[in-house]
Amino acid sequence: MDRLKLSHIDEELDSSEVAALRFLCLGIVNRKRMEGIKDAKQLFLRLEENGLLDNGVFLAELLHTIRRADLLSLLEADSRRPEETDARPTLSPYRVMLYGIYEDMTTENFEKMKFLLSSKLGRRQIEASNTALDLFVEMEKADLLSPTKLNDMHAVLKEFDQQLALTVKRYMDVPPPPHVSMVFQLVNNGSQQTPSTLSISETQPNIEGERIYSDAQPNRQPSSVANEAEYYDLNHNPRGLCVVINNEKFLGEELKDRGGTQEDANVLKSVFSRLGFTVVVHNNLTASRIRSELRELSKNDFLAHDALVICVLSHGEKGCVFGTDEKKVGLRELTLPFTSKNAPTLARKPKLFFIQACQGDGYQEGSVPCPPRPGEEEVRHSRLQEDAGPVRGETVAWDADFLMGMATVPECKSFRNTSTGSIYIQELCRQLIRSADSVEMDDILSVLTRVNREVGKGEYLTHKQMPEPKYTLTKKLVLKYV
């Protein structure tokens, strides 16, 4: 490759990025030859020795992995089609997976990891590890980590970050083949393809013990790509905002004050704070204030947020909730400010809405009486109230990556205990806590299914209540403590 272009790339890379490139090349370039490398120019010489700079494909893959796609324009493109390139090494998915863990690990969790590994690594190895990448290399030298030996890594990560542990577990369950380059078309055509359209090279050398595909095998999308796409990323701390609209005092004559709602607001604040969200509570908002608060919220930059949670505790009717001035706010009006069109930095991120309000003036009945659950405190009928309103409103419009957890199905009332809070919100928080405490990776829909089951078992003022989740989520969402 043109040395001048390589020199320009070297000038753009800082020391941490060079360290990342060096780590990603281990297993492709001899480990001894990688020692002592301080800048990108030295790394490029090692790559050149191994014939890895004959065209721009391998270096482009490296730069793309460390999120320096802005430098790809400096590379020369190979004139041949990607599937015609002979014996072209690509990055090991094992190293790319470890690099992703390094990127998402906080300084606090890195220190926890060093402490947990101090009994297996020597003091010198721990002290020499200034970054998680250094620590991974020391684990490899101590035979604690390899593409086929990930149990120690998984066990340590489970102690402080379930999402990172899940990344390792998915790799352990289905080790991906190392044959997909995400930059073929980016280098050759100047445009990036999605993983489903990428080619698989059948002529790969066996890198770091990964699989080899023969010429007889058809090109397939690696299962790891599908697995990675199954879960929403939760990498930031805080995860995002949880906004609670808590209407207790109503200004008109038709809607009663909502005793017990403060218990719901308190438990939501407690649970979502533990799940890593910054919680903001707005008390007693009129309909216009609800709209204006949500409009202002939608103008935020959500780039550093993984998700958004909005909880509305109020009276309601079908398709709407009520402000404290007894005016309606349609459910569509709650979600519309946060569609991809109106809040582009929330695109492809989960947006969760939990609505504690009636959705009609009817009652849901059960065919047979249901006895109280063993050990559960009996709900006193005298303290149960309905979150119902006098009129009906509009229906909901949906967009991608929304979930709306409704306290009840359409046409029916929901119930709230004036002392302990609403049936739905209290059960929702119990199930979120259960899921966060569990070693199982229950997604939010599994949590809401249990909420349906537990709420549906009860009997309230001789009636039943059945919550209803509606969603357009495109991935699984797993909420764990931060």
TrEMBL record:
InterPro entries: Caspase-like_dom_sf, Caspase_cys_AS, DEATH-like_dom_sf, DED_dom, Pept_C14_caspase, Pept_C14_p10, Pept_C14_p20, Pept_C14A. Residues 399-481 form the Caspase family p10 domain. Residues 238-362 form the Caspase family p20 domain. One of its GO terms (biological process) is proteolysis. It comes from the Eukaryota. Keywords: Apoptosis, Cytoplasm, Hydrolase, Nucleus, Phosphoprotein, Protease, Repeat, Thiol protease, Zymogen. PROSITE patterns: CASPASE_CYS (PS01122), CASPASE_P10 (PS50207), CASPASE_P20 (PS50208), DED (PS50168). Residues 1-77, 93-170 form the DED domain. One of its GO terms (cellular component) is plasma membrane. It is an enzyme of class 3 (hydrolase). It catalyses: Strict requirement for Asp at position P1 and has a preferred cleavage sequence of (Leu/Asp/Val)-Glu-Thr-Asp-|-(Gly/Ser/Ala). GO terms for molecular function: cysteine-type endopeptidase activity. Transmembrane segments: none annotated. It is found in: Cytoplasm; Nucleus. Its EC number is 3.4.22.61. SMART domains: CASc (SM00115), DED (SM00031). PANTHER family: CASPASE 10, DED DOMAIN-CONTAINING PROTEIN. Belongs to the peptidase C14A family. This is Caspase-8. It comes from Seriola dumerili (Greater amberjack). The lineage of its organism: Eukaryota, Metazoa, Chordata, Craniata, Vertebrata.
